[in-house]
Design goal:
4-stranded mixed beta sheet; elongated; alpha/beta; Nucleotidyltransferase, domain 5
Length: 139
C-alpha cells in the first residue's frame, strides 16, 4: 500500500484581502465628504451666477478676517502666505495653465485695501487680467 500523502497547497487565499479593501473603501467613502478644504471666511452676499462645474478648477486666493492670505494650491493650503508669495505661486501655476481663473475669497470684515492690494499684485506681477470676487448668494 502507498502512504496517503497530500501535496502542499501553494495558493494564496485573497478573500480576506478583498474584505479589508471593501471595508477601507466604505470608510473613505464616508469620510471624504466630511473633509473640507480651504479657509473659513464669511463672504459678503450678492446676486451673482455660480461658477460653472465644467470649467477647469480655479485658483482661489483667500483673505481671512485677520488679513492673512491663503492660496488653494500647493502642499499646505491652510498655511498663511505673504501677498508676494501668493502672487509668485499664482504666476508659477499660470506658466503651466495660463487659462486658469483666479478668484478672491475675502471675508466681509477685510478692508477694501487688502483686496485691492492683492488684485494689483496679481495684475502687475502674475499677469492676471481678470480676477473674480467670490460672494454668497442672496437668500
Amino acid at each position: 500500500m502507498k502512504p496517503n500523502r497530500r501535496k502542499p497547497v501553494a495558493e494564496i487565499n485573497v478573500v480576506p484581502y478583498i474584505d479589508v479593501m471593501l471595508v477601507l473603501l466604505v470608510i473613505f467613502m464616508i469620510t471624504a465628504p466630511l473633509i473640507t478644504a480651504g479657509v473659513n471666511v464669511d463672504l459678503p452676499q450678492a446676486d451673482a451666477d455660480p461658477i460653472s462645474a465644467n470649467d477647469d478648477p480655479p485658483l482661489i486666493a483667500s483673505i481671512d478676517a485677520s488679513g492673512n492670505y491663503y492660496l488653494s494650491l500647493g502642499v499646505n493650503p491652510d498655511q498663511a502666505l505673504e501677498p508676494e508669495e501668493l502672487v509668485a505661486l499664482v504666476a508659477k501655476h499660470r506658466e503651466t495653465n495660463p487659462k486658469a481663473m483666479i478668484y478672491i475669497n475675502a471675508d466681509k470684515a477685510v478692508s477694501h485695501g487688502s483686496v485691492v492690494l492683492l488684485m494689483s499684485l496679481l495684475q502687475k506681477q502674475a499677469g492676471v487680467a481678470n480676477v473674480g470676487i467670490m460672494t454668497d448668494p442672496t437668500g
